[in-house]
Write a structure and sequence with these properties.
single chain; alpha/beta; Rossmann fold; 2 domains; seven-stranded mixed beta sheet; 7 strands; 44% helix; 16% strand; binds magnesium ion
Length: 236
């Protein structure tokens, strides 16, 4: 059986959401205002990011200095290495930016493949953002276009015959959880923490709670992929 661990990045692999934390610290009022507009469907996620980085005014040097502070969830390396040993794919699926994944994971010796938006820098060091242009047909949760649609990527892996274990923590994972409930097959798993876990509980979506990637590794590696599925409690 082909298997893939698909993992959100910000707040799942990292212990903080990078863009949110940068904004909350530097431009708290503007950040709250922009996030509210996005969640209310007044602006799309692409515009949300553009307004936030415009208000931040951070250069590459500022971003690099911030990224030095970013820590990753205990168990990340164990999970990535164990997946490699078992022939499982490990793929990061982020609504954030490739630059963060490269700096945080690849520079720690974990060069995992990913799907994410693109951040490059202009001559003055200011970020230039390019966004994935995937949108799920008929989606009404967010105003399109989203900064990458996770269900689209889930369906690509499922279409290639993979069992998928998805790991997530926040609002950009809610659509994935809905898709999981509607389309999951035996052996597919959803691991949830943070607001995603609350969302799963409120909506009776079966999810395995976790706090760190060590918890996920315990389920998948020590318990075995199949037994982890049996450990799910519907409606937890
Ligand atoms: Mg997240």
């Amino acid at each position: 059986m082909k298997r893939v661990i698909l993992s959100d990045f910000d707040g799942t692999i990292t212990t903080m959401d990078i863009t949110d934390t940068m904004c909350r610290e530097a431009i708290p009022e503007r950040w709250a205002e922009v996030e509210e507009m996005w969640l209310a469907g007044e602006i799309n996620h692409v515009t949300c990011y553009e307004l936030e980085f415009e208000a931040l005014g951070y250069t590459q040097a500022d971003i690099d200095a911030f990224l030095e502070r970013v820590t990753i969830s205990p168990g990340t390396e164990r999970l990535v290495r164990a997946a490699q040993e078992r022939g499982w794919e490990f793929h990061v699926l982020s609504a954030g930016f490739d630059y963060f994944i490269e700096r945080v994971l690849h520079q720690r010796g974990l060069p995992v493949p990913y799907t994410a938006n693109t951040m490059r820098f202009d001559g003055g060091g200011l970020p230039q953002l390019q966004f994935l242009d995937t949108t799920l047909p008929g989606c009404t949760r967010f105003l399109p276009p989203c900064a990458g649609c996770k269900p689209v990527v889930w369906r690509e892996w499922k279409g290639r015959g993979y069992q998928v274990a998805y790991l997530g923590d926040g609002s950009t994972d809610f659509c994935l959880a809905d898709t999981f409930r509607a389309e999951a097959e035996p052996g597919d798993l959803l691991f949830a923490t943070g607001s995603l876990l609350r969302y799963c509980r409120e909506n009776d979506i079966p999810a395995v709670p976790f706090e760190t990637l060590d918890d996920v590794a315990d389920h998948l590696i020590d318990g075995g992929w199949g037994e982890a599925r049996e450990a799910q409690t519907p409606g937890v």
